[in-house]
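Hello support,

Our group uses your service weekly, and this is the first time we've seen a run hang past the timeout. The protein is Chloride channel protein. I'm not sure whether the cause is the sequence or the server load. Input pasted verbatim:
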Amino acid sequence: MSWCVTASMCISRYLTGFLYFTSINFVLTFVAAILCVCFAPTAAGPGIPEIKAYLNGVDTPNMYGATTLIVKIIGSIGAVSAGLDLGKEGPLVHIGSCIASLLGQGGPDNYRIKWRWLRYFNNDRDRRDLITCGASSGVCAAFRAPVGGVLFALEEVATWWRSALLWRTFFSTAVVVVVLRAFIEICHSGKCGLFGEGGLIMFDVSNVTVSYHVMDVVLVVVIGIIGGVLGSLYNHLLHKILRLYNLINQKGRLHKLLLSLAVALFTSMCQYGLPFLVKCTPCDASLPGSVCPTNGRSGNFKQFNCPPGSYNDLATLLLTTNDDAVRNIFSTNTPQEYQPMSLLIFFVLYCILGLITFGIAVPSGLFLPIILMGSGYGRLLGIYIGPHTNIDQGLFAVLGAASLMAGSMRMTVSLCVIFLELTNNLLLLPITMIVLLIAKTVGDSFNPSIYEIILHLKGLPFMDANPEPWMRNLTVGELVDVKPSVVTLQGVEKVAKIVDVLKNTTHNGFPVMDDGVVPPVVGQANGATELHGLILRAHLIQALKKKWFFKERRKTENSEVIERFTWVELAEREGSIEGVIVTSEEMEMFVDLHPLTNTTPFTVLESMSVAKAMILFRQVGLRHLLVVPKYQASGVSPVIGILTRQDLLAHNILTVFPHLAKSKGREKRN
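Update from on-call engineer: The timeout came from a worker crash unrelated to the input. Re-ran successfully.
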């Protein structure tokens, strides 16, 4: 905005600019929010907690569909363009996972390609692998950090990891970075907007020499402690605000939309109005006039309300893209570029915006808001202690961003590599490692990571890697004793019994047993009951849909099953008994469940501790765990219970066994 002649002209132009700025941001936020509210509610937010839950074994419906993908892309573009304090990194992770899932299943449900080779991906393990590759590719696309994307998937997202998955994710990120490089070369002409800016290194700080002494290490430790404290405080406050937002969002779509628009208006007012509070800074005489001041969409020196030859440093940080704001605040060899008051206002504003923006009904990411907050206090700290250290202010901003991310997200290795790939300065490696480790350690002493908090708020039954110590004092037999009796089926079962079980229970797995079996071991009594295996609810529904009925009670041959069922149908996990029509005559017929039963389910003795059962459940990636009696005897059922994920969650166990909470408290005090 050029310098005006009279005060009334200035006021008129500033008001006009404010109306344009606010109106455009309002419309862009409205588009993003209305798409999420009306068409794909699962597209709101980052999507990373839901991906973590899915890869942990939790079913997250409608997370990877075509509608979710389209809304996520358009909504993310609108929300980021509106200037909201959110990043594109989380949405890109979700977008990558959606693309991977759709490719693996042959497209959307209604238009699915049924090529035979796709059957190799139509199982839970390969689908998890594809989604993991998609998540790592999303991080690579967001930060242009291929190795960081692989490590992010390993450290934060994936629950089950193996060597084959390592090279698959690495291959995926390699393809992403090659495609990115090709498009960046094409866009160097400027036809793609700001896409090609910075090349593969987004926030390059390699032009400064990093040299530090013992005193500098002490300052680095202080930054790590501050980052851990602020990160845990941010998690605590965000938890409170998200609980409030949940109450507002439960009131209906209109409230979701109004909340998003209110945040957009507040953000625009702050971004446009706060730069008037700071003084103009004269341009460095060594800089050409085309560089300082600037009025374009990019640049380090925004003129805004300043006279010619001066710039507004706060407007430089607020009235620009989030990527450019990070690039500006990371700038090195610029000790006089920003005033302390501007950085303080910037830090406080983005703390507030970071708390109130996350949770509204638009696609949003946490990475960039936390980087902006951390870089603000890091640079501010660098200004005040600059005379006592050799570390550049821009590097303090990098360390501040890293410390706050580790203090909030509790990641270390992947964050370290991502920051190295972002900044292109290997000399930062030792102090970055120290900052990340200290910030994570300090943050862990206060509360869980931000993604664990979100998982808890969403009610997703995420299973942690380590069982609680008090779980060693409880057996799985005691756990199944407080549950309702297990529902079992016969190997050849009556249709009426199957329909009754499906309508009156919500279980997804049923033990299948055969009575009167002659055991192969000499000395055992005839007429024993055999545990044949476990059958899934989806397979029972398929048998009813296909009318797999017989008038007499008999076993079938494998050839009959192959003729009737296809691999696509047996791989389906959806379906409802409500849509199945069974006549009264068919109710008296029989179904042979033997060919549809998993004959090798995982079983544990009733004397096993819950801690061991939980480790087995998580590491193998189970959905059901059968509990068998320790002693076999005539008249004793071969299975006494069945455990699912919900049964092994700590808070569910404490609900049934409240006395264990006291032992938990004693262990903490000890």
